[in-house]
Amino acid sequence: MTKIQLLLIVCLVLGAAWFAWSARLSYRIALFTLMLLGVYFVALPDHTTAVAHFLGVGRGTDLLLYLSLVTGGYTILLLYRRTRQLERKLTEHIRAMAIERAETLR
Question: Structure pTM?
Answer without folding.
Answer: 0.70
